[in-house]
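[Q] Does anyone have a clean structure-token version of this?
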Amino acid sequence: MDVKTPDLVIQTLSNLGVKHLFHLPGASLASLYGSLTRQKKIKPILLRHEQAACFAAAGYALVTNRTGVCMVMNGPGVTNLISAVTECYYQSIPIVVITVDNPKENLGKEDFHEVDSFTMLGPVTKKIIHPEKVEDVQKAVAEALSSASRGRPGPVYLNFPMNLIGQSAPMKDVHLQGKPYRPSISQVRKALGFIQASKEPVIFAGSGVMRSGAEKELWEFIQLTGIPVFTGIGGRGAVPEGKPLVMGAPSYSFDMGFLNTSDLFIVLGTRLNPVNLRMGRLPIPERMVQVDIDDENPKFKKAAVYIQSDLREFLTLLNHEIKKSRHCQKRSTSSIYDTYKRLYRDFTSAEYSNIRKDPSLLTPQSFLLELSAFLEKRDATLFTDSIWIPFPHLLPRARKPRSFFSMRSFGCLGFALPAAIGACLANQKRKVVSLSGDGAFLFNCQELSTAATYRLKNFIQIVVNNSGYKSLYNLASKKFVRQNEYYLWEKIDYHGFAESLGVKAFTVDSPSEIITTLTEAFNGIGPCFINVIATGDSLQGAFWTE
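[A] Here you go.
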């Protein structure tokens, strides 16, 4: 029996395990909605903006380690989500973007909603799939889902031409394709040789640890060898912060010059781009062993040993070789870790003392300290926008995998709120907190309505409100003449705005209200919104300075 294209698309998505479809309607998608109503496994989630639909799919992917799927109209629907797709590309988040478009060969006719999305999305997607025959539709869906998670994860663009919508083909069985990249035993032993020969090795772990599900294997490696580890922002949660040998993701304003004494970096699941290297200020030893699923980038520092491999596969083999080897002794101490503990204790002590100097002031920094102490006692996932990147020491320690996510390399504001919505739908038993400055919040503030519509009981949005892009304002004011009108705005009633969209709202305007408000929000049934009216300078730091 032949089946029309919309049913081929939706049924194949369902058969391949897709549970949620984040979408925004458009004329070109109308035919697919009929197919959605005829099945029960996929829950469609209606967002208010295409960028938010993409970020919601990203948040879903981040907490589940499965591919997130979003669907938008062609033309302006695609252009609206390009920034979000780019953020997913640089963060290696597996998503599939689906649209129904004009046939590719018709480009240039200036048809309704026409835009060359192929050229636009080409540089920021892993792959563009554009089936030209109805018989290839199911294969295209399976290949999109497979490609998004195979190798280095990332976004895939699945573009169906409109002329296929009315056509039919038999429904077939299709399957996801993909095998892990396994290293050779000779590669593993070569890496182990470098590790054994080093005196002060350090592990640098990134988000690739969690993308490959290698958290347990990494922790075993640390326990077997006694090698200390630190992470980039994207690697937070790869190892339990606060445990011995774990340096976490130190503040950008913390001087990590002590790493100069390391004679080997073991770089696992992270690229050596400027953001990961603390804007180029991270000291890197000459010798590196680097393991990543991606091809080696010739523009980055070259490793002595570069192994393209699934990280879990590599660490499993490496740990096995260590257990077999009589020559690989666990290090009883690390001078680098001992130095870090002393210096970071002094650094944070001075920072916290300065922040708490005037207990009557509700500054962004003082609020974060209170929030961190509160969250560390609870099981929650935290999503943040970029304003918090330089200050991991003000955020709760990531003791569990997939408990902390931040907008990172590309720097697209508006990530946290819709990504948190995707995470809430993926796991409705765990509290999810979206943390933004009011500037970032306004990029996708309309999605509070989405949280209300789907009655997300575990959703909490916190906005640190200082009426503008205060961190940028403070930074510019240090170098140039103060120009308030370019950065700041008049007070906005965020409390009233949230309640108008059906979300329970709280306002905090003094330090004494922080804990009681957080407790009420966490103990209650969400969605909730907390408007924190901050005073004093906003968060800023070395991340943005030259």
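[Q] Thanks! Anything notable?
[A] The chain has 18 helices and 20 strands.
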